[in-house]
Design brief:
The complex is a heterodimer of chains A (195) and B (976). Chain A has one domain. Helix content of chain A is 48%, strand content 3%. The radius of gyration of chain A is 21 Å and the shape is extended. With 976 residues, chain B is of the alpha/beta class. In chain B, helix 9 packs antiparallel against helix 11. The N and C termini of chain B lie far apart (87 Å). Chain B folds into 4 domains: 219 residues, 3-Layer(aba) Sandwich (Rossmann fold), CATH 3.40.50.740; 183 residues, Dimethylsulfoxide Reductase, domain 2; 142 residues, Barwin-like endoglucanases (Beta Barrel); 233 residues, Alpha-Beta Plaits. In chain B, strand 7, helix 5 and strand 8 form a beta-alpha-beta unit. The chains are: A mainly alpha (195), B alpha/beta (976). Chains A and B meet through helix 1, helix 4, strand 2, helix 6 and helix 10 of A and helix 1, strand 1 and helix 27 of B.
């Protein structure tokens, strides 16, 4: 009797683990994982304190599929003088001195079968925060709630995580809403993004 | 282990796996240190350069994404290609990213090449050069045709070091044309043939839609003269013993006995004079010709000859051309003189045959000189031999010349190459050259046109430009310094810019570079023909009984230099539809007598050598001839993939040819031997992608005769038919995309198929898989033969997803991966597809392709992949998307950048962009003013398998059949 109980518990445990495995796998589109970066870069300081526009650094967003990461030269444009004595900026100066790129860890990644152009969204006057969350408050990018295990559990019991989940359903929902409220022509065709 | 332990282990491993599954591999994003002004990541930059895959010198635009070239397209500004590009041009990318590319210099140690450092290699080279410097003619340089700065730099280099005059080696050099022009016009030149201005083209074997001189330009010109437009259509008559791709585009293919072209040309000239179509002074030249006898010898009925003469005389103007393999024997020069006389008699000089804008082929080193160099090598007179890129004498020269043996006698052979081949295998030192897409340079294919080459990306391997290396090594050998002596330039780039200082005005360099070069009109020079008697003798063929060997250049591989491209290996030869392997084409009847079946390995032997190739049986080739394409080598990659196995079969027909040249012109005689065939008993079935060429009343291709087409075009009828459907009608709120394909224009060149492969990341599957019918091509060019099997009328049908309105694939998909978009496309969502293959089975057009493997793109071929298109994985169904990524980009450009609706030209599909004959049109069917909407309703419009009611978005235009003339020719006696 007791043995059978253990067996049942193990099966249940396996099922739960399997559920989490499958649920996180199926949500891989929504990867936005806060990571340790080679340089501790606080978006909050740049956006809130110094009022720098997102597109000053992510300058390709308006003309390209990619938003772009600022070149080392662009960072050094300010930091040659600004806060040059801080330890994190010294790290940056070191990369610039060696003429090597800063090996940033990728935070936002859509699956490879998904085409997401930043340009179209910028032209449609969608704010960066709509998808990336309140970046201006973040000291580490994507550190606000994302699809972590804890959020998965919260989601399971009906609490929606507060940060955008970047899943297809979420994208489509926004497209529908924009079309209804702003009379935009956000595409709803599968092949626009999946080709 | 007890039960409890078992569960513990299972639970722990499960938890670990689940935890690991949540984590994705960490990826890095590397920003540029200093941004490149010309390149925005995610946005394509185009660089104009010149294609160097053959001497035609087409202008290309290289599409650079994130620093790497992902696609080539024709440069619309360039006068040679005029925006189009052939299959070989597209596949140049696979040469650039070839997995076998030399990664460092190699030095021979015993029998193998071992990697060495650049410094070490250059030191050896300089020492050897220093050794021969004072020794007169012990240094030889062999390169491909370089008509620009690199050529003149190499000449200066050779002179400075006291070498023999540089040899430019082009296996197809058109020397007979030069010799004939010397005789008739006193000009040693290859003139410009204006196909576009002719009303009738009469070709004696010239494969001008495949490899002859400048195939893309000729195809553009041919389409302009020949394709039915506004009630007008040109005529094309082709004389050749074999139905080549060019021959099957002829309105009248005249099959003659091999080697009898001169007699046929002269008989036509005689009949032309007799019919009063030409000046009487030409009568003397052909006094000795008896058309009746010619008809008997050549197997061409007299009525056909008369008809051809009448048609040719009626053209204002016409154009006669001679070339191809059938015209390279001992009769080559005589035939070209006869062609000259035909053009002179019909008044075509200065109109369609223009001296002045002469081809660069006139600068190719005569074959006789090449043969002399080979003799000098064999005699041990050459101590250092420098071989340029794309030169492969061990493969491309006749076997009778014994080039490989001669090269082995040279103490030091240095080869500049990108890829290993038969010649680098003999070299002592191999220096990796930059690919032409990574190099500076210029190339003038024709008087008045100079194209500029610029690096379109950074070299992918540790390669250095040949010119830079030679300059540096030359200076070391001469003991001079940079800026001084006979070789002062630091690099080819500097030399190029110095020479261009005199070509372009100050400040115009960048404009010339972005345009792709400079061009000007060259007026046609006045020439008068010297009319003389022409010997009508047929080509002499060595070897007693047997079949005349037609060793013809393959339109897939040229002389073999393109054989390393796997796209081309898997691109079907349009006529045979065979992929990967080489074959010997034998007449079905002749093969029957010898008991040879298709796929039997046949030993083809001439007095000079023998090769073993599988047989391909054809009802059309002259019974007295067999044909083997030149250029088949196994070289796509020597990386072992699960589904592509490297083979090492010798299939080079050059091995069967003698060293001897055509006596008058000195050109290599490709038509000069008879071969015997013998079954070896082995079988190597060919992978033939089209099971039948018989339409079987299905009317896949449809025809309309010229008179009817004319009448309908003038009446301006509107073609409209819609079959009823049980499904609800689709409503298109915005656009509705559609395409038209003009089968009257399509020449079956396969450029579209390879362009599609390049654009859409279509994998290569290898011979074994292709033989199963598992090729993944989204676009195939079918050949359909109508009429008598021995003398069929071929029509080419580019077949791809028809984007049906009532699509059979859509309702059968259980997961909605195949669905209809709001803009009339058949969408295929890869991430939904579960691979049931129901859609493929239900598609009447057989255009859906399944991924039977995770197809591989061996490094660095993966760099070529288009970043805008998903790379499909195992178990996914795929098909033509009408270049949805280009539609998205075109709409983005029109709507967001220009704030307007999409119009013609905003969206150009890859196949449409590259088509040399502009047979393909894409656009918005809902816009009545768009080209595609007009053509879809043209009187010639029809849908393939219309009766099944699929309502395709792709409309075909019927082939226009010109009036037939005379009965089909009988088989004549083969000439001894």
């Amino acid at each position: 009797m007791r043995k059978a109980g253990v067996g049942a518990a193990a099966v249940v445990l396996l099922a739960v683990l399997l559920f989490f495995a499958v649920s996180s796998w199926s949500r891989q589109p929504a990867i936005a994982r806060p990571s340790v970066q080679p340089i501790n870069f606080p978006h909050s300081v740049h956006v809130q304190t110094y009022k720098i526009d997102c597109q000053y650094c992510h300058a390709d967003a308006r003309r390209s599929e990619y938003a772009g990461i600022p070149s080392v030269e662009r960072c050094m444009g300010c930091h040659k003088i600004v806060a040059a004595d801080r330890p994190e900026i010294k790290k940056l100066a070191e990369y610039a001195g060696k003429q090597t790129p800063v090996p940033w860890t990728r935070v936002y990644k859509l699956p490879e079968f998904t085409y997401f152009p930043h340009k179209a969204h910028i032209r449609a006057e969608i704010r960066c925060q709509t998808c990336h969350g309140a970046v201006e408050t973040m000291t580490t990018i994507a550190a606000a709630p994302g699809p972590t295990l804890a959020n998965d559990l919260l989601n399971l019991v009906g609490f929606k995580p507060s940060a955008p989940v970047l899943t297809m359903g979420w994208c489509v929902e926004c497209h529908r809403q924009q079309n209804a409220t702003r009379k935009t022509q956000a595409p709803l065709d599968c092949v626009t993004c999946h080709h | 282990m007890n039960r409890r332990d078992f569960f513990k282990i299972v639970a722990t491993t499960g938890a670990t796996a689940a935890a690991a599954g949540c984590q994705q591999a960490t990826e890095q994003i590397l920003p540029l240190v200093v941004p490149n002004e010309q390149l925005v990541p995610g946005v394509a930059a185009l660089f104009a350069t010149v294609c160097r895959e053959c001497p035609a010198g087409c202008g290309v635009l290289a599409r650079n994404r994130e620093g790497r070239v992902v696609k080539l397209e024709g440069n619309p500004d360039h006068p040679v290609s005029q925006g189009a590009l052939c299959a070989r041009g597209h596949a140049a990318l696979q040469g650039l990213y070839h997995p076998d590319r030399f990664a460092s210099p190699q030095r021979r140690e015993g029998d193998v090449l071992k990697p060495v450092g650049w410094d070490d290699a250059l030191k050896t080279f300089a020492e050897k050069l220093g050794g021969v410097k004072g020794k007169g003619k012990a240094l030889a340089v062999v390169t491909q045709l370089e008509s620009g700065s690199l050529g003149s730099l190499l000449d200066r280099w050779t002179q400075a070091l006291g070498g023999r005059p540089r040899v430019t080696l082009e296996p197809f050099g058109y020397e007979a044309i030069r010799a004939a022009n010397r005789a008739t016009f006193g000009r040693d030149a290859v003139p410009y043939h204006a196909f576009e201005d002719a009303e009738v083209v009469l070709s004696f074997g010239a494969d001008f839609l495949e490899t002859w001189m400048s195939n893309v330009r000729h195809a553009r010109g041919f389409a302009r003269m020949h394709t039915f437009r506004d009630g007008k259509a040109g005529r094309f008559i082709h004389v050749e013993p074999r139905q080549s791709l060019t021959a099957s585009n002829a309105d009248e293919w005249v099959r003659n006995a091999p080697g009898t072209e001169t007699a046929v040309a002269l008989a036509i000239l005689k009949l032309l004079v007799e019919q009063g179509g030409a000046d009487r002074r030409f009568a003397d030249a052909v006094a000795a010709v008896d058309p009746k006898k010619v008809a008997e010898d050549s197997g061409v009925p007299l009525e056909t000859l008369e008809q051809v003469a009448r048609t040719f005389a009626g053209a204002k103007p016409g154009l006669a051309v001679g070339g191809g393999v059938a015209v390279t024997g001992s009769h080559a020069t005589q035939l070209q003189i006869a062609v000259n006389l035909l053009n002179a008699a019909a008044g075509n000089l200065g109109k369609t045959v223009r001296f002045g804008p002469d081809h660069a082929y006139g600068k190719v080193t005569p074959y006789a000189e090449v043969a002399r160099l080979v003799q000098a090598m064999a005699a041990g007179e050459i101590e250092v031999l420098v071989l340029g890129n794309s030169v492969n004498p061990a493969f491309t020269l006749p076997g009778g010349l014994k080039v490989a043996d001669a090269i082995r006698k040279v103490p030091f052979v240095i080869s500049f190459a990108t890829l290993p081949d038969e010649t680098t295998a003999l070299a002592h030192l191999v220096l990796p050259d930059t690919h032409w897409l990574e190099s500076w340079g210029d190339y003038s294919p024709q008087e008045g046109i100079v194209g500029l080459l610029q690096p379109t990306m950074k070299p992918i391997r540790d390669a250095r430009p040949m010119g830079d290396v030679l300059l540096a090594v030359g200076r070391t050998a001469l003991g001079t310094e940079e800026g001084k002596g006979p070789l002062p330039w630091s690099t080819v780039e500097q030399y190029l810019k110095t020479t261009w200082d005199s070509v372009v005005k100050a400040g115009q360099w960048n404009a010339a570079l972005s345009q792709g070069g400079t061009w000007r009109e060259v007026a046609a020079a006045g020439v008068t023909a010297r009319v003389e008697r022409v010997d009508p003798a047929a080509a002499k063929l060595a070897g007693g009984d047997g079949f005349a060997l037609l060793a013809y250049p393959s339109f897939r591989f040229y002389d073999g230099r393109s054989a390393s491209r796997s796209w081309l290996q898997e691109m079907p030869d349009t006529m045979t539809q065979a992929v990967w392997d080489a074959w010997v084409e034998i007449n079905t009847e002749s093969a029957g007598k010898l008991g040879i079946r298709q796929g039997d390995v046949v030993r083809v032997a001439s007095p000079h050598g023998a090769i073993e190739v599988p047989a391909y049986l054809s009802p059309t080739i002259h019974p007295g001839a067999v044909a083997i394409p030149i250029g088949h080598r196994y070289a796509p990659y020597h990386v072992r993939l699960k589904y592509v196995q490297p083979t090492a079969d010798v299939t080079n027909p050059m091995a069967l040819l003698p060293a001897a040249a055509d006596a008058t012109s000195g050109a290599p005689a490709f038509l000069s031997v008879k071969v015997t065939l013998a079954r070896t008993g082995a079988r190597r079935p060919l992978a033939v992608l089209q099971a039948t060429h018989d339409q079987d009343e299905r009317e896949l291709v449809q025809h309309v005769d010229l008179a009817t087409a004319r009448q309908e075009a003038l009446a301006g009828g509107r073609h409209e038919e819609r079959h009823p459907t049980m499904y609800s009608e689709h409503e298109y709120k915005g656009y509705r995309w559609g395409m038209t394909v003009d089968t009257d224009a399509c020449i079956g060149c396969q450029a579209c198929a390879v362009a599609c492969q390049a654009e859409n990341n279509v994998p290569v599957v290898g011979k074994a898989e292709a033989a199963y019918g598992r090729q993944v091509h989204w676009l195939r060019v079918e050949r359909w033969a109508d009429g008598e099997p021995g003398h069929p009328h071929n029509t080419f049908l580019p077949m791809f997803c028809q984007h049906c309105e009532v699509a059979p694939c859509e309702p059968v998909c259980p997961v909605f991966a195949a669905y209809h978009t709001d803009e009339g496309l058949n969408g295929q969502v890869y991430n939904r597809c579960v691979g049931t293959r129901y859609c493929g089975n239900n598609c009447p057009y057989h255009v859906r392709r399944f991924n039977w493997w995770n197809y591989q793109f061996p490094e660095p071929l993966d760099v070529q992949l288009n970043p805008d298109v998903t790379v499909r994985q195992l178990g996914i169904m795929e098909k033509c998307t009408m270049c949805i990524q280009r539609i998205v980009a075109g709409k983005d450009h029109a709507h967001r950048d220009e704030k307007r609706a999409v119009r013609d030209g905003d969206i150009v599909t890859a196949c449409q962009q590259t088509c040399p004959t502009q047979a393909i049109t894409f656009g918005n069917l809902k816009d009545e003013t768009s080209q595609v909407a007009k053509l879809s309703h043209a009187p010639r419009a029809y849908h393939v398998l219309d009766e099944i009611g699929t309502r395709p978005s792709v409309t075909y235009l019927k082939k226009v059949v010109r009036e037939a003339s005379g009965p089909a020719p009988r088989a004549g006696r083969p000439q001894a």
